[in-house]
Design brief:
The protein is α+β, with helices and mostly antiparallel strands. The chain is built from seven helices and 20 strands. Helix 1 links the parallel strand 1 and strand 2.
C-alpha cells in the first residue's frame, strides 16, 4: 500500500515528483503495487483534510502483515519561538491559521502510529527553499523530519523514515523531478539492490539514496536517515517479479539538469555515460556540461560520478 503526496502551490515541481514516484510504484514491470492500493494526492487534492483521510484509510485497510509506503513532497518547517513546533504544509495552507490548514508533527506521527503495518517506510522530500515568510514571534527554519518521528522510529524494526536533506541544506530539483526523488525511483527500479533477487529492500534503498544524492549535487545535499536499528524489509518488486533490473522507463531516463530553487547551482548530469575504447592508458576530458569523461582501455559507466568498471 502507498500514499503519495505532492502539494504543488508555490512548489509546482512537487506534483511532478509525486506523479513520477507513483508511476514507478504502480508500474507492473517495476514495483507492481496494485493501482487500487496507491493513493495519489497532488496539487489541489493535497489538502490537510484529504491527507488526513488518506492516512486514516491506510490505518483501516492494512494489517500487521502489510507493507506501507508514505511519500510527501512539499514544505516541512520547524517554528521556534515561545513554543517549538513542526508542520508539514499541505496545499492551501494559511500561515495565519496553521492549526487548521497545516499538519503538525505530532499529528502526522499520530496518524502514522495508527497504521498497523509492521513494514512502514516514510519518505519526506520537504526541505525546499522558499515558502513561509517570518511569522510574528517565531523563527522559521526548514526541517527535514518532525522531531516527534524519532520516538516512533527509534525502536527500529520494520519502520523507517528518510528525509531529503539536512536542515541547513537546499533540496535540488531537475526538470522532471527532484534529485531526491530521482534517486528514490532509481532505487525502486533495482539500482543499489545488494541481493539481486527481484526485491527492493528498505536499507538498500536508504543507503543507495544516501550515496547518490550527494554525488549528484556536488556534496551539497545529504539525505537524513537513521537505519542503525532498522530491518532491511522488502518494499516490493524492482522488475515486476524478474531478477534482472529494467531501469527507469525510457520517458523518465533523461539527462538530469540539476538546480536549486534559488538557482545557485546548475549543471547537467548524464545519467548513463558509456564509453567503449581500446588501447592502454586513459585520458580525462570534459564535455560541454563540465562532466569528466575518461577514455582508455576500460568501459566507463557514470551516474553523476564516473566509475571505472573493470
Amino acid at each position: 500500500y502507498a500514499c503519495v503526496i505532492g502539494v504543488g502551490g508555490d512548489l509546482p515541481s512537487t506534483v511532478n515528483d509525486a506523479m513520477v514516484f507513483a508511476k514507478i510504484l504502480k508500474d507492473p514491470e517495476r514495483c507492481a503495487y496494485p493501482e487500487s492500493q496507491v493513493q495519489v494526492l497532488t496539487g489541489e487534492q493535497a489538502t490537510r483534510a484529504n491527507i488526513i483521510t488518506a492516512l486514516e484509510t491506510l490505518a483501516s485497510t492494512t494489517n500487521a502483515e502489510s507493507t506501507v509506503l508514505v511519500y510527501f513532497s512539499g514544505h516541512g518547517y520547524q517554528l521556534s519561538g515561545a513554543i517549538k513546533s513542526y508542520f508539514l504544509m499541505p496545499h492551501g495552507y494559511d500561515s495565519k491559521d496553521l492549526s487548521e490548514t497545516a499538519i503538525s508533527g505530532s499529528e502526522f506521527v499520530g496518524l502514522l502510529r495508527d497504521i498497523p503495518a509492521q513494514k512502514l517506510l516514510v519518505l519526506l522530500d520537504c526541505c525546499h527553499a522558499g515558502g513561509l515568510s517570518d511569522l510574528d514571534g517565531f523563527q522559521i527554519a526548514k526541517a527535514p523530519l518532525p522531531p516527534e518521528a524519532t520516538k516512533l522510529f527509534a525502536k527500529g524494526g520494520g519502520k523507517m523514515v528518510i528525509g531529503s536533506s539536512m536542515p541547513d541544506e537546499l533540496s535540488f530539483a531537475a526538470k522532471l523531478y527532484s534529485v531526491f526523488t530521482y534517486a528514490l525511483i532509481k532505487g525502486l527500479c533495482g539500482e543499489g539492490a545488494v541481493k539481486k533477487d527481484g526485491y527492493v529492500r528498505a536499507n538498500d534503498l536508504a543507503m543507495y539514496v544516501s550515496r547518490v544524492v550527494p554525488s549528484l549535487t556536488s556534496d551539497k545535499q545529504h539525505p537524513v536517515l537513521d537505519i542503525e536499528k532498522a530491518d532491511n524489509f522488502v518494499l516490493g518488486y524492482y522488475a515486476g517479479g524478474d531478477i534482472q533490473p529494467k531501469g527507469l522507463p525510457r520517458e523518465l531516463d533523461q539527462p538530469l539538469e540539476v538546480e536549486s530553487k534559488s538557482g545557485d547551482f546548475n549543471r547537467q548530469i548524464s545519467q548513463t555515460i558509456k564509453i567503449e575504447a581500446s588501447g592502454k592508458g586513459s585520458v580525462a576530458t570534459q564535455n560541454a556540461q563540465g562532466a569528466t569523461i575518461i577514455t582508455g582501455d576500460r568501459n566507463i559507466i557514470g551516474s553523476g560520478n564516473i566509475v571505472q568498471k573493470k
